Amino acid sequence: MNFTKTPHHGVTESDLSAPLTPLKAAQTFQNNDEQAFFNALEEKGIRLNQRQTKAVQHTEGPLLTIAGAGSGKTSVLTARTAFLITVNEKNPANILLITFTRKASEEMRERISLLPGVSTQDARKLTAGTFHSIFLKLLRSLGYNQKILNSERHKQIIMKNILKKMKSPEASLPEIMLSSISSCKVKMMDPNDVPESKETNELKAAYSEYEKWKTLNRYMDFDDILVFTYREFLHNPELLAKMQNRFQYVLVDEFQDTNPIQYELIKQIAAPQNNLFVVGDDDQVIYSFNGANSSIILEFDKTYPDAAVVTLDTNYRSAPPIVGLGNHVIKHNTYRRAKIMNATDKDGEQPYYLRPATTEDEAGHILTHIREQQRNWKDIAILTRTYTNARAIFEQLIEQDIPFNAQGMKQVFYEQSVIKGMMDHLRLAYEHQNLDATAAILPSLFINQEAGMRHIEMENFVEPSEFPLTHLKTWKTLRDFQKKSIDRRMELVKEASRHQPQKAIQLLRDDYMKHLDNANDEALTVHKTTLKEMMDELEFSSSRFETIPEFLAYVDRIIQRFNEHKKKTGTPNAISLLSIHQAKGLEFPIVYVIGASETILPHVSALSTMKDKETSHKQLYMKNPIADLEEERRLCYVAITRAKEELYISSPEKHLGKQTPVSRFLTDAFKKVVKQEGKTVKAWVCTGEFCKGWMKITDQGEPKEKQCPLCNLPMIISHKPVSTR
Predict the structure, then answer these.
(1) Residues 6+ away with beta carbon under 8 Å from 692
(2) Cβ contacts of 490 within 8 Å, gap of 6 or more
C-alpha cells in the first residue's frame, strides 16, 4: 500500500496549494531612528514584512495581531519589545510580557537581549512569565503563604472524599466535578454565584466544601492564584493602581488561549492607557478544556473599539501545498475571522494520504515508509489525537527498535492503572495460583490488599489451593456482599480462562468496570468516554492473539523493551511521537498525522451528546457539540501546519473493529459547494460579525429568542441560501 495524493477514492482532487505572498511592499518609517532599528534587525537576519513592521511600530493603544500558523509571531513580539526599549526609549521595567509557558518566557527574554540596542541588563528588567508565575509572586509579596495544591492525584482524592460524604452518585468521577469547579473559577464565579437548580445543586455544594477544605488546610490551587489576584484588585484599588503605574505596556502571547479571568486581569492592569498588545490565532484555539474562549480574541476589537488590527497572513514555515490544505480545512469552521494564509515562493511536496485497513496496519505502513525515506529521525514527528490512538505505533516503534521520544508517555499502554487491572485478571485466569495477580485484584473487590493477602497466604500455607482467592471466603471480617462478589469474580475468571483473550476481556469487562466506578484508587477515575475508549483499545489489541498466555507474553515483552528504551531517552536523533496538543507551537520538516478518521479525528466525544451521569450536573458549563466539532477541526489544522516540507496523513478504514469513514475535515477540504440560485430556507442567523452560525427553522415550537450555539450572541430570524454538494 502506498501514499496517494487524495484522501480516498471518490474524493474530487483539486488544487489546494496556497497563494504566494505578494512581493515585499515598501516600508514606511516615521523617522530615522525607526529606519535604523529595522535596518539593524535585517543585519541580524530578521527581515519583517510590511504587516509585521506595522505591528512592531504600534506602541500606543490596543493592538490585536492575528498571527496565522508560521507567520513569525515570536519575531514580532520580541522586535516590538526591543522597539519600545530602543526607539521609544521606554523603561523595560514598565513592560509586562505574558507567555503561556515558562520555557517560552525564558526564550523570549534571551532573544530580546540579542536584538539591536538592547542590553542584557535591559532584558533582565523586563517582567516576563506566565499568568500564574507573575501573579503568584504578587500574592506572596502580599503575605499569601498557602501551599500550592498542584497534584491532580491529590485533588481527586480530596474531591472523591467530599462526594462520598455528600453520598453523591458522582463519587466515582471526581475529575468531572473538579473540571466544573475550575470552569466556574475562570468565569469568576464563587459557590454563591452558582445558580440554584436541580442540575447545579450538587456542584454548588461540592464547590463550597472544596473551598472550605483548602482554607482549613491552608492550600490554594492554580485557579486560586488568579481568583485571589482578581479579588485583591477588586478590593484594593491602591494595589491595582501600583500595578497599572508599573506596567504601562502589556504584551500577551498565545492570546487565543486566554480564559475569562486571565483576560479580566490583563484588562485591569492595562487600564487606563490600554497599551495592550495581544498576539494569537483564532484558528488555533484548542485548549477549551482549560477555559480558553475563542470569543475573547474574536471580540477584542469590540471590547476596545479604538483597537488596531493587523493580520499576519504569510506562513514562512510550510510549503505552499501544506499551507493550502490547511486553508481548505479550516475555512469550513463558521466561528472565525475569514483569512487565507499565503505561502512563500518556495517549492513543496503535495500532502500524501494513506487508507490502511486498521491502526495496526497504519503503524506498520508508516514505519516502513519512514525507513525507506532514510531521513534523520529527528526531522520526523508522528502526531496523534489521543495517547490511546497511539498505542499501535508506540508498540511498533519499540518492537522495531526505532529511537523515539514520547512526551507524556511514561509507561506502556498496558501499565496504565485502568488497563493493568484488567491485565491482572487475565494473569489470574491463566494462572489461578498467581499471588501477585491475586493481590492486584483485591481493591476492586473492596478488600484491603495487605490484610486480605495476609489471610490468603496464611490459609494457603496450611491448605494449598489451586485458586488461593477461595481462602478469602473463610475470612470472618468479610460481609455477605463481599463474599458474593468474590464468588462472582471467581466464576468469571474461571470462565475467561477457557476463551481467547478478546472474549475473556469481554466476559470480565462489565463486572470489572462496575467495581472500577467505585474503586478507591483515584488513578482509576477517568472520564467515562476515555475509559471506554481504553478498554475498547485493549480488546482490539488482544484480538490479534489466540491464547491468553500468548497475549501476556507479548505484553511482558513490550514492557521490558520499553524499560530498556527509557534508558536511552534523550537521544538527540529520535522521532517525536506527540499528541496534537503537545505539538502546538512546534514545527518539523516531516509530519505524519495518524488516525484521520471519524471517531478519532474528530474524536468520538465531539460526535456524541453524552447525556449520561458524567455530565448531568454541569449542563450550564458544557460546550455545545457544534463548538466541540469546530475545535476538533482546529486540532486538525494545527496538526497539518506543523509540517514544513512533507506531510503524510493516514485514515484507517477500521477503528476498534468498526468501519470508519475518512475524517470529514479532509473530505470537506476536497469538495466544492455549488449554491442553488434563488433557493433559500427560513433560519435563525447569528448576529456575530465573525460567526457564520445558522439553524434552519422548523416552525415546530420555535422559541421567541435564541442564542447562537457557537458564540452565544443573539440570533435573528432571516433566510439562508440552500447549498448542495
Answers:
(1) 334, 335, 686
(2) 467, 469, 470
Residue 527 and residue 175 in contact, taking contact as beta carbons nearer than 8 Å: yes
Please report which helix (H) or strand (E) contains residue 224, including its range.
Answer: helix 222-235
Task: Read off the pLDDT of residues 457-506 as tens digits, 9 standing for 90 and up.
Answer: 888 888 888 888 888 888 888 888 888 888 888 899 999 999 999 999 99
Q: Which helix (H) or strand (E) holds 456?
A: helix 449-462
CA distance 610 to 625: 10
Measure the CA–CA gap between 534 and 20, rounded to whole angstroms: 44
Looking at residue 116, what DSSP letter applies? T
Q: How far is CA 257 from CA 103, 131, 132, 341, 693, in A?
A: 16, 12, 14, 21, 22
Amino acid sitting at position 500: Q
Task: Kindly state the DSSP code that residue 12 receives in the 8-state scheme.
Answer: P
Cα Rg, the chain, nearest whole Å: 28
| Residue whose entry in the numeric block shows the C-alpha cell 512569565 | 129
Q: DSSP characters for 274-285?
A: T-EEEEE-GGG-
Helix, strand, coil percentages (3-state) for the chain, rounded to 5, are 50, 15, 35
Peptide bond preceding 195: is omega within 30 degrees of 0, i.e. cis?
no
Q: Cis ω on the peptide bond leading into residue 191 (within 30° of 0)?
A: no
Say how far apart CA 561 and CA 565 lie, in whole Å: 6
Tell me how many degrees the CA angle 319-324-327 measures, rounded to the nearest 5: 130
What pLDDT is recorded for position 676? Answer: 45
DSSP letter string over 294-351? HHHHHTHHHHSTT-EEEEE-EESSS-HHHHHHHHHHHTT-SBS-----EE-S---PPP
CA dihedral 192, 195, 197, 200 (to 10 degrees): -70
Q: Distance between CA 359 and CA 540 in Å, rounded?
A: 10
Sign of dihedral through CA atoms 187, 189, 194, 195?
Answer: negative
pTM of the model: 0.86
Q: What CA–CA distance (Å, rounded) separates 288 from 335?
A: 14
Q: Which amino acid is at 38?
A: F
Q: What Cα–Cα distance (Å) separates residue 18 from each residue in 313, 314, 316, 330, 663?
A: 11, 10, 12, 13, 21
| Sites in the chain below the pLDDT cut of 70 | 1, 8-16, 20-27, 169-172, 198, 345, 515-528, 569-570, 608-625, 672-680, 689-692, 694, 698-702, 704, 709-712, 719-725
Helix (H, G, I), strand (E, B) or coil at 220: strand
How far is residue 525's CA from residue 519's CA, in Å, rounded to a whole number? 8
Q: Which amino acid type is present at position 634?
A: R
Residues with Cβ within 8 Å of 595's Cβ and at least 6 positions away in sequence, in order, are 359, 362, 384, 385, 389, 601, 650, 651, 652, 655
**Dihedral angle at the C-alpha atoms of 534, 535, 538, 539, nearest 10 degrees?**
-140
pLDDT at 616: 41
**The pLDDT of residue 496:** 92
Q: Is residue 254 within 8 Å of 280, Cβ to Cβ?
A: yes
Rounded-to-integer distance, Cα 257 and Cα 647, Å = 26
**Residues present in the chain in total:** 725
